[in-house]
Specification:
Length: 268
């Protein structure tokens, strides 16, 4: 009983004194993409509420493996956390026979942040004003149209592969190290199209720099209420979304995880 009371007391004191120095927020993808945006928005708010700098560190490579592995092996003291999500914590398990980390055993979830649908967008120079037009164009020019993605095995990559498989079409995949350069490529006409997360492409759609053809969620989105879903346009049960969450290394004191959960929850 005394040991339990002592642990509870020490845990409370630990949480009260946390953080006493800067906290590192690892983002396993390049600056400017959706993981990075989430990390910086939350980090800025946490810096103000917790009174210590939240330093975003982009550790890029291998479809998020580099930064995720770094976090898994960091000291479990609450001073290294990460923005994780569907790629590093879900998809990679199926893509790679051997990962240097275990997405379940090596992490403690702090809080779920958001889920975002993917939007099918094209460069305005592409002669397609609907998803039907695009599929017909790709079918007439197999392997000639290209799409950019955040990397092999990323959600945008798999979304395109899924549509290609369903429709029996062939696209040329051009992978980049993150969503920011992938979006830049389609904006500049280096690639023809992209399955991009709403946060990455919405501003470009509204400015006319990209043309949106469909949203890959089960329902239309409020930001683009007139944009039909892929399923509405004749591809039944098609859905492609990305999710994000904050994680800490396994072994991080639960009191610190609870404090981070509460503080990030206020931001959301």
């Amino acid at each position: 009983m005394f040991a339990l009371l002592l642990a509870a007391c020490c845990g409370g004191v630990l949480a009260q004194g946390y953080p006493s120095k800067p906290v590192k927020i690892v983002v396993p993808y390049p600056a400017g993409g959706y993981f990075d945006v989430v990390g910086r928005i939350v980090g800025h708010a946490l810096s103000e509420s917790l009174g210590q700098p939240m330093v975003v560190e982009n550790r890029v490579g291998a479809n998020g493996i580099v930064g995720t592995d770094f976090t898994a092996k960091a000291a479990p003291d609450g001073y290294t956390i990460m923005v994780g999500g569907i790629g590093p914590h879900a998809i990679n398990v199926s893509l790679y026979s051997k990962l240097p980390y275990d997405p379940v055993r090596d992490f403690l979830p702090i809080i779920f942040v958001a889920e975002q649908p993917l939007i099918v967008v094209v460069n305005p120079k592409v002669d397609a004003h609907s998803l039907k037009d695009l599929i017909a164009l790709i079918r007439s020019r197999p392997g000639q149209l290209s799409y950019s993605s955040a990397g092999a095995g990323s959600t945008p990559h798999l979304a395109a592969v899924m549509l290609s498989s369903i429709e029996g079409i062939k696209l040329n995949h051009v992978p980049f190290k993150g969503m920011a350069p992938a979006v830049t490529a389609v904006l500049g006409g280096v690639t023809d199209l992209l399955f991009g997360t709403a946060s990455d492409v919405l501003q470009h759609v509204k400015s006319g720099k990209l043309r949106a053809l469909a949203v890959a969620s089960t329902r239309r989105i409020s930001a683009l209420p007139n944009l039909p879903t892929v399923a509405e346009l004749g591809v039944p049960n098609y859905e492609a979304t990305a999710w994000f969450a904050f994680f800490a290394p396994a072994g991080t004191p639960p009191e610190i995880v609870a404090k981070l959960n509460a503080e990030i929850g206020k931001v959301l």
